[in-house]
Specification:
There is one protein chain. With about 475 residues, this protein is α+β, with helices and mostly antiparallel strands. The chain has a five-stranded antiparallel β-sheet. Strands 2-1-6 form a three-stranded mixed β-sheet, covered by helices on one side. Strand 9 and strand 10 form a beta hairpin. It starts with a helix and ends in a 14-residue tail after the last strand. About 25% of the residues are buried.
Length: about 475
């Protein structure tokens, strides 16, 4: 072996291992270096974020360092941005004072001389019950004052776009009380019906109707609130006087002159004359009082009148009871109505007390006596005129006469002449008739068997109405037909 060869190093197994371990070490070293750099970047980022947060918080704290409200906030017509809640409340109180100086004057909504008195009064908003609702606005201001950092931060974003208008509310009862006290019947007037004076039934005179008025309360509240709200939007520059039309409702009269003209009588429907010269003083006094009560009585179409209530009214007036003359006169009312063609009906006395039913001492007869009801079944007013003159009771009945219509009463008596011994002692009314009719008639003391009311048109019989015999009032306390 040569020296050259001998100088060559003999390689060990370890020397023959590849350089992979060094590469690995270098990779690990690089990764560690990168992690260190990343950690430093993360720390720097976190520090930067903290710095920014601290700066933002510092800026926010600086911007919210006092009570000043955020820009853009408007409340009750006041630009509140940059003001403290205390300053806003002060300005509101100043503005409220100007609002309270607003006066309201009402003008009539129609041309009526009496309503011009509305212009004589002015009212403050307080008198009219107008109040201002500042509760919502003051609640926001209190939240701002009492709120911490985060509360104010939230409110700052929320209030920046808020424009809270002033709100007027109305005390309804106070408004109505003020109107009633100030104007009374001027704006609360009942309608007056037209009135007919039938002193001369065929030529009546009329008092013209007057419509009534009343306050339209709902419309008044709406108009007032609308006007006041419009003034509040003007802020601290409202008008000093509001003119408001008083909303009134017309109440028409239920009876007008035109209606009375259409209903006025055009004819004498019936005339009955009775001899009362033979009556005793007490009875004659009752008949005279009955005639006065009946005189001028008007029944409108559809209205009814009760014979008994009419008679009892006279008894009360004269402080009489069981007066024969009173019921005789009431029966005269019935007879005139029957001859004039008015509707006559009976009402059972079963629900009436004995003292109301009749004036006879014979209670058995009294109980069976029915009540008579006369009803105006025509299209016009019916007017009674009655008086006692020279020993005669004269009853006239006026109304609208149907063309060609006439009525007559047919009475058929029993052939027996039934005598009523007690009745013979009573003084009865007797109709004034000719001598021939008196001789032809059956005795007035005999009870009628049948009674008919005959209706004729142009002389021709068109109806023969049977009348209940009890309607003849053939009782001791009344006369016989």
């Amino acid at each position: 072996m040569s020296d050259k060869d001998s100088n060559k190093q003999v390689s060990s197994p370890d020397d023959e291992v590849p350089h992979s371990s060094s590469i690995y070490r270098r990779m690990i070293s690089a990764i560690k270096e990168r992690c260190v750099r990343h950690r430093r970047a993360m720390i720097t980022a976190v520090a930067l974020v903290g710095l920014i947060g601290a700066g933002f918080q510092g800026y926010a704290a600086w911007s919210l360092r006092d009570d000043r409200l955020p820009e853009g906030y408007q409340v009750m017509g006041i630009q509140a941005g940059g003001l403290t809640p205390a300053e806003v409340k002060q300005r509101f109180n100043e503005q409220l004072g100007k609002w309270k100086e607003i006066a309201v004057m009402f003008e009539p909504d129609r041309t009526e001389a009496a309503l011009n008195k509305l212009l004589n009064r002015q009212f403050s908003l307080e008198e009219l019950g107008v109040e201002f609702n500042e509760e919502a606005a003051f609640k926001q201001l209190e939240e701002w004052e009492e709120g911490g950092f985060w509360t104010r931060l939230a409110l700052k974003r929320e209030l920046a776009d808020v424009q809270l208008e002033a709100e007027a509310v109305l005390n309804d009862q106070k408004l109505l009380n003020t109107m009633q006290h100030a104007y009374g019947s001027l704006i609360d007037r009942k309608p007056q019906d037209a009135i007919a004076n039938y002193s001369n039934p065929l030529k009546p005179t009329f008092q013209v109707e007057e419509p009534g008025i009343e306050l339209d309360e709902h419309s008044l509240k709406q108009l007032l609130l609308k006007k006041v709200t419009a003034e509040l939007k003007k802020g601290d520059q409202p008008d000093h006087l509001i003119m408001l039309r008083m909303p009134l409702i017309t109440l028409p009269a239920s009876t007008t002159v035109q209606m009375l003209e259409e209903r006025k009588p055009d004819a004498l429907l019936s005339r009955t004359i009775y001899d009362v010269s033979h009556l005793e003083e007490r009875e004659l006094k009752a008949v005279s009082a009955s005639a006065k009560l009946l005189d001028g009585k008007v029944l409108v179409p559809g209205e009814a009148m009760q014979e008994r209530s009419f008679a009892v009214a006279v008894e009360d007036q004269l402080d009489l009871r069981d007066s024969e003359g009173v019921y005789q006169a009431a029966a005269v009312m019935y007879q005139a109505a029957l001859q004039a063609g008015l509707a006559v009906a009976e009402q059972s006395p079963s629900s009436m007390s004995v003292s109301q039913v009749a004036s006879s001492a014979d209670m058995e007869s009294a109980v069976i006596r029915p009540e008579l009801i006369v009803r105006n079944n025509t299209k016009g007013d019916v007017i009674w005129q009655s008086e006692v003159h020279e020993g005669k009771l004269i009853v006239d009945l006026y109304g609208k006469k149907e063309p060609g219509v006439s009525y007559e009463i047919e009475t058929i008596h029993s052939p027996e002449n039934v005598q009523d011994k007690e009745g013979m002692n009573l003084k009865r009314l007797s109709m004034v008739k000719s001598q021939e009719l008196e001789e032809a008639e059956v005795s007035a003391s005999s009870p009628p068997k049948e009674i008919y009311r005959i209706k004729r048109i142009d002389g021709k019989v068109v109806q023969r109405e049977r009348i209940a015999v009890s309607m003849t009032r053939h009782m001791r306390s009344t006369y016989s037909y």
